[in-house]
Design brief:
Largest interface: A-B, 97 and 96 residues
CATH architecture of the largest domain in chain A: 3-Layer(aba) Sandwich
CATH topology of the largest domain in chain A: Rossmann fold
Helix content of chain A: 40-55%
Oligomer: homodimer
Largest sheet of chain A: 7 strands, parallel
Number of strands of chain A: 7
Chain lengths: 345, 345
């Protein structure tokens, strides 16, 4: 029998793991009832510290995540782990194939592990991942680690709004550093050179530190991202990493940035939800009715350019600006490109 | 003096390079007058073959792009090159620092080169890049190569809808292959193992071929992506790559998929434009007026969850479903989550 949103809500707050797993599956399937449970759970979230873990493939993020989780368990803190892999169709609570180490953790009731693949993309993978973070937060996990498999845009979007974002790299050539530069230098609160028993580790640390020092816009009071050397396989440096996470959290609380980060995260979630909804509405219109088919035909015949087609879809979906008395002026912003563009014609 | 959209349109069709450069700058600055010129130019586009070039950093995409461009110039075909680098604030028609080879090309009037960085992100980098592709297409370039610096989501979004998408890798360890697996195996029409004079090249080719054979959903009539070995520095294999691109184009035309690809590209462009507009409208509402500030406050106090906040923003921007007689049923799709979710409360 299917639980009602109310049942799920109640069971989740009682610590029922299966209820948490079921609710997450509902989120992945974009089940409307999940929405209700999320709404009710929302006021119970906010206690967990959200840690994002990203970096180049092969840098050992997964092993490091496990080590960090064990470290927290030794301190008797509970841990949620979310593995985000946009390239994988595989999901549903099971573990990614090569993550044997995580299986050791999965027997511990103080740890909750979930993988999210492209199947969780029914309502957008970023949206679903944020929902799962909020569920594990309300579920009472002290630390929620969101580990991404790659460093693509979806992954970055997901970890960017974590309380503490860890960027993992390893010694070995400028390519790794080059990959890191591509957009993720800005989002890292802590940098890790993993596999630091390999040749070139001190060089990699020095390179990173230099790049971080030349980072623009850093003022005196800002957080200075540390670079930490670890060997995840042996556990070396993991305690230091946990200390850095704690220090960053303390900094966020003291500086008042914690509150700001939380609001930024909710805003980002809200915008992702809107993007998914508007895309879905537009795709429905394009694929499923006569007006949409007509528009596709005119696009195909090059009679209409994509910007003008966007104008038509907006007008079709939401009505002409003046026929919508309930709409707000801000809505005109996204209808405005058209009228502006025609002023001088 | 600033050219009118009409002047730009006329000069562009006459082959005026400076007019093309000016229009591109206007696109990057989200100048509304660019919209008008784009609208007029649209019916002149569609003749160019759009080639996307993506792959891991350091694989030599840039050198390969230059070689390919020279090859086309030797055949007396004109070439447009767009370098997309989301991590770079640097743009505006100049070349990326290390692209010395491209400078050799830039003196040739049959080649037009443009770099797009995050500054081109005012109206969204994907949207701006698509606009620039369309401008160079209308400008009469026979081949338009869109080269991305990394393999992030924006880059993939940009090359995914090219007519022919080339994925570049190089010999050397499973990490490269692993990076390729992450979402870009599906989008490659042609795979290149560059730097194939290095150790491990045959192995890299064999690995790729094996991965491509196990790709699901390939039927008899489908295009079978070839794996080509090149040494971009010496030019080895570049002719073979050009042949593969020509073969893929012939396949698209013969199979009727060319038309379908074109429409898919326009649809994707349209959806990107919509996403940028809805985000901008929502951000404006959140940042600039009282209702938005109130919503942020309630989010901050955890009184409202992001999904419910999205409902409120939609209603605020576009009016309640029943107060919008001009709006279409499809618009209700993205307002519907709320009413659905409350049915069982």
């Amino acid at each position: 029998m299917k639980d009602s949103p109310n049942d799920l809500y109640r069971k989740l707050l009682e610590g029922d793991r299966r209820a948490a797993a079921r609710l997450i599956t509902m989120v992945e399937n974009a089940d409307p009832q999940a929405r209700q449970a999320l709404e009710m759970l929302h006021r119970h979230s906010g206690g967990g510290h959200i840690v994002g873990m990203t970096g180049s493939p092969g840098s050992g993020k997964s092993t490091l995540t496990c080590r960090l989780a064990r470290h927290y368990r030794d301190e008797d803190r509970t841990v949620g782990i979310i593995c985000v892999d946009p390239s994988s169709p595989f999901t549903g609570g099971a573990l990614l194939g090569d993550r044997v180490r995580m299986q050791e953790l999965s027997g511990d009731p103080g740890v909750f592990i979930r993988s999210m693949g492209s199947r969780g993309a029914l309502g957008g993978l970023s949206v679903a991942t944020n929902d799962v973070i909020n569920i594990l937060d309300a579920f009472g996990k002290d630390v929620i680690i969101v580990e991404t498999v790659g460093a693509g845009q979806v992954e970055i979007e997901v970890v960017k709004y974590a309380h503490t974002c860890i960027v993992v790299t390893m010694p070995g050539g400028g390519d790794e550093i080059q990959a890191i530069k591509a957009g993720i230098l800005e989002i890292g609160d802590i940098f890790v050179v993993n596999k630091s028993d390999r040749d070139g580790a001190p060089r990699a640390v020095a390179d990173l530190e230099m790049m971080l020092e030349t980072k623009p816009g850093i003022d005196e009071e800002a957080w200075k991202p540390p670079v930490i050397s670890t060997v995840a396989l042996s556990g070396e440096g993991v305690g230091e990493l946990a200390d850095a996470i704690a220090a960053h959290r303390a900094f966020l609380v003291q500086s008042g940035l914690m509150e700001e980060k939380t609001v930024q995260r909710m805003k980002a979630e809200l915008l992702e939800i809107l993007k998914v909804r508007v895309s879905r509405a537009a795709e429905n219109a394009l694929d499923e009715d006569e007006v949409g088919a007509g528009l596709i035909g005119r696009m195909s015949a090059r009679e209409i350019d994509p910007h003008s087609a966007a104008d038509e879809i907006v007008e079709y979906l939401f009505g002409a600006p003046d026929s919508n008395p309930g709409g707000h002026q801000a809505a005109q912003v996204w209808k405005a490109d058209n009228s502006q563009g025609r002023d001088n014609e």
